[in-house]
Design brief:
This protein is of the alpha/beta class. It is built from 24 helices and 30 strands. It has three domains: 220 residues, 3-Layer(aba) Sandwich (Aldehyde Dehydrogenase, Chain A, domain 1), CATH 3.40.605; 167 residues, Aldehyde Dehydrogenase, Chain A, domain 2, CATH 3.40.309; 227 residues, Aldehyde Dehydrogenase, Chain A, domain 1, CATH 3.40.605.10. The strands form eleven sheets. It has a five-stranded mixed beta sheet with strand order 16-17-30-27-26. A four-stranded parallel beta sheet has the order 9-8-7-10. Strands 11-14-13-12 form a four-stranded mixed beta sheet, with helices on both faces. The radius of gyration is 29 Å and the shape is globular.
Length: 710
């Protein structure tokens, strides 16, 4: 091959290329703002809503401070208008076959592809985020989400038989968010037939653009409505008649917490500081920039965190090519922070990395699980077995092995603890917006006549403090805590009468101290119970079923005294035993599945226990409902604090005598974790008494990514 010498002109070209790509032009974003005369209102029912006499806030470039547009702030009547539009659209949207909704979502994906430059330019211009992050990540994944949920909608009638859409969904977005996080929630809601009202913070034009693209598609203008307003409108939206669920979207300002083994601490810190020094910060529209800006408020937040960390003894390293203007903050490494310091438990703001050393894997697991959040984590190790062991033990929703940040529409994404309990992506994300067919609509949950500050703090005066008249026909039942009966702290009880009004017995009336004791006992028992092999949990459920069958005559007699015919009472006992055996069989399967996420490798979908569950049993079907709620909770490895039927608690107490592994407390004011809103439930029917909803409520999903390649 002949060699040629580059002339002066060629050297000049090569030199100019070293400085990276030309910044993205924001002309298309400004042109779109011009179509609204630089005044953005709300997008409701397929058209722009700009009511008069509304306050407005400026939408500014976070770097230059230039006013890009003014945004009207909604009031209560605007929220009501948006909800009513969504309720009207829900009637037709939910009635259409799933394939029609799928076609609409697929068309929306094509529209986003057509206007993708406008989307990523507007998002980067307004938020200051690096355009590469938005262009190559958010916009592409948003299209994938729409295509995936279009397919899910097309197969809904077969795959999700027995479920129906909830209705109108209220979506609350925080001051800092990405429109991709909004898409993770909108796509499954629309796919299953729900409609959405999104309340976005002021000066957030990207969700309005997305709503406009959806509304201009054609026959379903009111399925996505976006209103812009302050946080004071959140209770207004939540209390609107017709709102069936309120979903929240987390903030975008979470940083990283890094745990490094002591044997590689020095080398890892050296490499990390070296890499941080090469990061480029600047205007988000510059394609060569690694880090954009988040505005003055985000800078103030991170400055306060760093100052507090330094005051608590931490060392701080800052590096990077960072402009001196205020909106930019250098990538920061915080180390040597005492484990007990407040900053060690606080949420890490962007762009900060908090690094801490550890000696053993057990210590690393304790440090990681010792924080109040449980969103996602990655494990990096050459020893795959140890990495998998840590991945299983981490109390988070998503774990990546030797990778980080991978996302796929078919893989569920969620969290635990303070990171929330909702799920997005995969089948889990669809169930978030579905309810069993025939479930009554949710009514407004806010009562004007109820004092929420004092509710539940005092014992109602109608409850007797002790036995009233005559001797008890049997010794009074105490509280079942830690595997044994014990007297309540207040030494109070209440009478239980049969269907004829005759005294049947007394049960202990628990108080706040008893609740705390029951929860503590359940927490102590949880590690051992959750650590049991599925077969061991199944064996105990089958043993409890056998105990019920041995006490069939006694339990049936109890039911008969409550007005149940003898044959029906015997049938309830038999069905309760069958439920326990059925959940024992499911406990062995556990629901773990393995799926392949595109070319990224397999993902293990794990079903893990929630922890300590609080369950309040309904009055109907006192034995069967108790067993139907208890069995799935135990099958998935949870421990339980249960309140039996208020009208007939003796049956549940009889069951406790035959099982030493149920953590129990009889208390009248324990807050339930899942309620049926006072509606009757057909516990004797398979769908409502032992259907998939109970399994979904009894466990959480963890996605364990096992990517292939380098």
């Amino acid at each position: 091959m002949a060699a040629t010498r580059a002339g002066p002109r060629a050297r000049e070209i090569f030199t100019s290329l070293e400085y990276g790509p030309v910044p993205e032009s924001h002309a298309c974003a400004l042109a779109w703002l011009d179509t609204q005369d630089r005044c953005l209102g709300h997008y409701v029912n397929g058209k722009w809503l700009k009511p008069e006499h509304r306050n407005s806030v400026p939408c500014q470039d976070p770097i230059t401070g230039e006013n890009l547009a003014s945004c009207l702030q909604a009031q209560a009547e605007d929220v009501a208008t948006a909800v009513e539009a969504a309720r009207t659209a829900f009637k037709s949207w939910s009635a259409h076959p799933g394939i029609v909704r799928g076609q609409h979502l697929a068309r929306l994906a094509k529209v986003i592809q057509k206007h993708q430059r406008l989307l990523w330019t507007l998002e980067s211009l307004v938020t200051g985020r690096a355009v590469r992050e938005v262009r190559d990540g958010d916009v592409q994944l948003a299209q994938q989400l729409l295509h995936y949920h279009a397919i899910q909608a097309s197969t809904q009638e077969e795959a999700l038989a027995g479920w129906e859409p909830m209705g109108v969904i209220g979506l609350i977005l925080p001051p800092t968010f990405s429109f991709l996080e909004m898409m993770w929630r909108i796509c499954p809601a629309l796919a299953v037939g729900c409609t959405v009202v999104a309340l976005v913070p002021p000066a957030s034009p990207t969700p309005l653009l997305l709503a406009q693209l959806s509304g201009e598609l054609g026959p379903f203008p009111g399925i996505l409505n976006v209103i812009s307003g302050p946080a004071s409108l959140v209770p207004v939206l939540a209390s609107q008649p017709g709102i069936q669920k309120v979903a929240f979207c987390g903030a975008l300002e979470g940083g990283l917490r890094l745990l490094i083994q002591e044997s590689v601490w020095d080398e890892a810190m050296r490499r990390l500081q070296e890499r941080m020094g090469r990061l480029r910060s600047g205007r988000g529209l510059d394609g060569a920039v690694d880090m954009g800006a988040r505005g003055a408020a985000a800078c103030d937040l991170v400055q306060r965190f760093v100052r507090e960390a330094q005051s608590q003894g931490a060392q701080v390293f800052q590096a990077g090519n960072v402009p001196s203007e205020h909106p930019f903050y250098p990538p920061t490494l915080v180390s040597n922070l005492p484990p007990a310091s407040p900053c060690a438990q606080a949420e890490v703001p962007w762009p900060v990395v908090v690094a801490s050393p550890f000696r053993t894997a057990k210590e690393a697991l304790a440090l990681a699980n010792g924080t109040p959040r449980g969103g996602s984590a990655s494990v990096w190790s050459e020893r795959l077995g140890q990495a998998l062991e840590l991945g299983y033990g981490l109390q988070v929703g998503t774990v990546w092995i030797n990778a980080h940040g991978l996302r796929d529409p078919s893989v569920p994404t969620g969290g635990c603890k303070e990171s929330g309990c909702s799920w997005h992506g995969g089948p889990d994300g669809l169930y978030e917006y579905l309810r069993p067919s025939g479930t009554p609509a949710r009514l407004s949950c806010l009562s004007k006549n109820l004092n929420y500050d004092t509710f539940g703090l005092a014992v109602p005066s109608t409850l007797p403090a002790g036995p009233e008249i005559g001797p008890s026909p049997a010794p009074p039942y105490g509280l079942f805590v830690g595997g044994r009966f014990q007297a309540p702290g207040a030494r109070s009880s209440r009478p239980i009468q049969d269907s004829s009004g005759n005294l049947h017995g007394y049960v202990a009336e628990g108080g706040a101290k008893d609740i705390r004791g029951a929860v503590e006992a359940a927490h102590q028992a949880f590690p051992g119970w959750a650590g049991q092999f599925p077969g061991a949990r199944a064996a105990l459920l089958w043993a409890l079923a056998a105990a019920l069958e041995r006490r069939k005559s006694t339990l049936a007699s109890r039911l008969e005294r409550q007005g149940v015919e003898l044959k029906a009472a015997e049938a309830e006992v038999e069905l309760s035993a069958r439920r326990l055996r059925a959940w024992g069989a499911r406990a062995q399967a556990q629901g773990h599945t393995l799926q392949v996420a595109g070319l990224r490798g397999p993902v293990l979908r794990l079903r893990e226990p929630l922890g300590v569950l609080a369950v309040v049993c309904p009055d109907e079907w006192p034995l069967l409902a108790f067993v139907s709620l208890l069995a799935p909770a135990l099958a998935y490895g949870n421990t339980v604090v249960m309140v039996p039927s208020a009208a007939c608690p003796l049956l549940a107490l009889e069951v406790c005598q035959g099982s030493q592994f149920v953590e129990w407390a009889s208390a009248g004011n324990l807050k339930p974790v899942w309620a049926n809103r006072g509606c009757l439930r057909a516990w004797d029917q398979e769908t409502e008494g032992a259907g998939p909803e109970l399994g979904l409520r009894s466990a959480r999903t963890k996605a364990l990514w096992l990517p292939m390649g380098d």
